[in-house]
Design goal:
There is one protein chain. Helix 2 (58-66) runs antiparallel to helix 3 (71-83), helix 5 (121-127) crosses helix 6 (146-169) and helix 11 packs across helix 14. This protein has 4 domains: 5-169, Nucleotidyltransferase, domain 5, CATH 3.30.420; 207-321 and 369-463, Palm domain of DNA polymerase (Alpha-Beta Complex); 469-589, no CATH class; 597-712, no CATH class. Helix content is 38%, strand content 20%. A hairpin with a 2-residue loop joins strand 13 (400-405) and strand 14 (408-414). It is built from 22 helices and 28 strands.
Length: 713
């Protein structure tokens, strides 16, 4: 029989402390100072207490109160827990606190580690659209009078309601941890995914964290020893491979490997695409725009199944302190997870997946018993090189890659070449031992490599980054109706205005941001977590502590409390703003893209031109992706040492010349461009600017312009 559960939250002040409990029926029970410790002990024993950050704060305050610690001392403990930087266990010993464990009748669940990103409770409340956002109403270091105590008690109820809502959102995660804990006889309910992976692997290895940590060799320099299946074929990847094998990777004080100079801003060109190389995943350089499938062309995305876990199993790598036994244990967990998935045991499959996918993260933490920076470096570099080997195969057969990101590649190819594509994927799987999962797209629209919307041939949407509709615990609401409207247009051809006007939920229009130092609106303090919508009734922005505008808050109306979800109750809602923003996004990401533009840009660069799109919404530098450029021209001006005179582009390195020549053009009867992007008009050679033309141009300049040139001579 499951224990009775209570959400709980403590607040501590110099002259007062308080705890609120919320039961499963929605009833509150509160204890105020002076708290009867025996009554409180009787109330909580035998129950499961669920908190947020409770393993680092509330549990210790509870222990102090149960020991009849004086109010002033409880306040000192609270201050130390929050501000001293000392470990909770160290403070437990120095204050002589009772360890509250299951053995003496106490049971706790801390929800904070279950949420990625170390977000605070107020932030999570805003992400869950909790009706009331409220900060602690009084300075925790100032004594409270009776009226203030009542206000804080009400505030505590609201925190408990947010925690209860969070607990409901995390029911699946808690259930998986409970099940996995029963299997391994461990309490995993208050651990994040990476923490679970470490606990379970230590259990399987029949060792302890302290034993392994004593064996860790703290190397300051590492090198990359590639697995035998890394065999690149193109000159570009071969050169990169040789560089990586010769590179020494320094380990920083944080325990993380430092990006070496040889890899800083490293870009490799294969076919029509360029790729950024580093100590993370592979990323292609992608501009905003859209590729579409048609009668002749198809778009296929292939992702490597469980890429980083697969690298671990294929290479046989392991943290040195664990010995090779790690490989057998890890492979066993992978195999059990696959068997559970294939036999329909979803709960088992999902719980084991946590361990499989989260182990890599622990290898990069110097505080973990599994710390192994050699694995961190080896896994990320192998992942990039293996993916480049797949891209090599595609490019060798003329199958154009349009994007690549960490564990996957997206290709646009002729339909007649589908069998070739399939065979190349199969060959790569045989070469590496990895598996690929395929999805076909009707369209692939993106702002950049980490921000895209793809519509599959089966009518599903795959989105990432700012173009995704998140509604989760790791992203702040950011005018989600904008993403919804764009998605509906791409998926169902529904007009932007129609989607925006059809929404009757104010949560679609909300923005949330954390503002360091707190935010104000027209002089009224709002808090450090601020929520608003865009209105037609105000022209002033929300400001941060320095008096600067909070991004996207101009014309923002604070909505710290949500009295109603219906849009009808917000007649000032500026729907035209959201329609306009959605149309901007749509126009940006649906610019037609073409393959081959980057090859053209590179060819022009070899001729001496400074390739740049004639019309383009993004940056006009060579490292950009030119796929959405209808026509590629060249930059001119002092920075690139090119001038266009009477339609011909010349090399011109003399300093001090002006960028505008309106008067000179009239006098000479020619067009002159020494700044901006110009059409190349088929020119394929660049000569030095003839002395005669230079002298003719100099002669018609103003006295001030001539003086500047002579000064720079």
């Amino acid at each position: 029989m499951s224990k009775e559960q209570f959400i709980f939250d403590f607040e501590v002040y110099p002259n007062w402390n308080h705890v609120t409990f919320l039961d499963q029926e929605g009833n509150f029970t509160q204890f105020n100072a002076p708290i009867d410790s025996e009554a409180l002990r009787a109330f909580v024993k035998g129950k499961t207490l669920i908190g947020f950050n409770s393993n680092r704060y509330d549990n210790y305050i509870l222990s102090a109160v149960l020991s009849d610690m004086k109010i002033g001392m409880v306040y000192r403990l609270s201050k130390d827990l929050v501000e001293s930087g000392k470990g909770s266990w160290d403070l437990e010993q120095s204050y002589g606190l009772e360890r509250l464990t299951k053995g003496n009748g106490f049971d706790f669940i801390d929800l904070m580690p279950l949420v990625a990103g170390f977000s605070g409770l107020k932030t999570l409340g805003a992400r869950m659209h909790h009706a009331k956002l409220q900060e602690l109403p009084f300075d925790p270091h100032e004594p409270l009078n009776e009226n203030q105590q009542q206000i804080v008690a009400e505030y505590c109820k609201n925190d408990c309601l947010i925690t209860e809502k969070l607990y409901q959102r995390l029911q699946k995660q808690v259930a998986l941890r409970t099940q996995l804990g029963k299997t391994y006889q461990l309490d995993l309910r208050s651990l994040g995914d990476a923490g679970i992976a470490e606990k379970v692997l230590l259990k399987e290895l029949d060792t302890t964290s302290s034993e392994l940590r004593q064996k860790i060799a703290r190397h300051k320099v590492l090198s990359y020893a590639p697995p035998p299946f890394i065999n690149p074929i193109s000159p570009e990847v071969k050169e990169l491979f040789a560089t990586l094998k010769e590179t020494q990777f320094q380990i920083k004080e944080s325990g993380h490997p430092e990006l070496p100079y040889s890899l800083k801003d490293k870009v490799i060109e294969l076919g029509d695409k360029s790729y950024k190389i580093g100590l993370g995943g592979l990323h292609s350089i992608d501009c905003a725009g859209m590729f579409s499938a048609d009668d002749e062309n198809m778009i296929i995305d292939v992702d490597v199944t469980s890429y980083y876990p697969a690298i671990i199993t294929q290479t046989g790598w392991y943290p040195p302190q664990t010995g090779p036994e790690f490989n057998a244990v890890y492979q066993s967990i992978v195999d059990r997870r696959v068997e559970a998935k294939n036999t329909g045991r979803k709960a088992d499959s999902d719980s084991l997946k946590i361990i499989v996918n989260s182990t890599y993260g622990k290898t990069g933490s110097q505080y973990s018993a599994l710390y192994a920076p050699n694995l961190t470096v080896g896994i990320t570099l192998t992942g990039q090189l293996a993916l480049l080997m797949l891209i090599e195969k595609f490019e060798a057969k003329g199958l154009g890659v349009i994007s690549a990101n960490t564990d996957g590649v997206t290709v646009r190819l002729k339909r007649k070449n589908e069998a070739v594509f399939t065979q190349l994927c199969s060959d790569w799987e045989s070469d590496t031992g990895f598996n690929l999962e395929r999805v076909d797209y009707k369209l692939f629209a993106q702002r950049d490599v980490n921000c895209y919307i793809a519509v599959t041939t089966e009518g599903y949407v795959k989105a990432k980054g700012a173009l995704a509709i998140h509604n989760d615990l790791t992203h702040n609401p950011s005018g989600d109706i904008i993403q919804k409207a764009v998605t509906e247009y791409l998926l169902n051809n529904q007009q932007i205005e129609s989607t925006v006007m059809a929404s009757d939920d104010i949560r679609d229009f909300i923005y949330v941001k954390k503002v360091t130092g707190g935010a104000t609106k027209d002089g009224e303090y709002l808090g450090s977590i601020v929520r608003w919508y865009l209105s037609t009734d105000t022209a002033t922005p929300i400001l941060n502590a320095k008096g600067n505008k909070v991004s996207l808050s101009e014309n923002g109306v604070p909505l710290m409390d949500i009295p109603s979800l219906s849009v009808d109750d917000y007649p000032d809602l500026d729907v035209n703003y959201y329609i306009g923003e959605a149309e901007k996004v749509l126009n940006d990401i649906t610019q037609p893209k073409s393959q081959g533009r980057n090859l053209e840009a590179r060819w022009l660069k070899t001729l001496g031109f400074s390739s740049a799109p004639m019309t383009h919404t993004g940056k006009t530098v060579f490292n950009d992706d030119f796929s959405s450029s209808e026509t590629i021209g060249t930059q001119t001006g002092d920075r690139v040492a090119l001038i266009q005179y009477d339609g011909v582009i010349y090399r011109f390195t003399e300093s001090g010349w002006p960028s505008a020549y309106k008067s000179a053009e009239k006098k000479l009867g020619v067009n002159i461009k020494f700044g901006g992007v110009v059409d190349i008009n088929g020119q394929n050679k660049i000569a030095d600017f003839p002395d005669q033309l230079r002298d003719d141009l100099f002669a018609v300049l103003t006295k001030a312009q001539k003086g500047k040139i002579e000064t720079n001579a």
